[in-house]
Amino acid sequence: MSRWETTASLATEAAPAAVWEKAYVDASAWPLWNRELKRASLDGPLAAGAEAKIVFRSGLRLCFRVVEFEDGRLFTDESRLPGARMGHRHEIEPTATGSRLTNTIYIEGPLAGLWRRILGPAAVRSLPGAQQAIADLAAAP
Fold this sequence. Notes:
By secondary structure, the chain is of the alpha+beta class.
């Protein structure tokens, strides 16, 4: 099976709880920090098994399922594509001065190479800006 991934990390003075509450728990906040998204919604609270519907600015619409979840610390959402799965892991680690955000976008499956060429450049481009927007959103009063 083929796999592609891109990861970015950012240290911020924002507290982990502020990142979690202001940026991750409410799906309607996701487009505030991910400029690739037009809108997002969850079918209930952010938790393992929750389903999210996401509309990208490109017009692409995907349904994601939360496949990994640790309250206040991390969640991974995953969507099925023809011949592959695409996921985004969002992790928050406390530091002495705030937190470290680590985001990994991956594509896995027989057609991962094809989907990497289609979706990979935007994923790589978007992560650093999205992380800074998360930090700014979490630090806002």
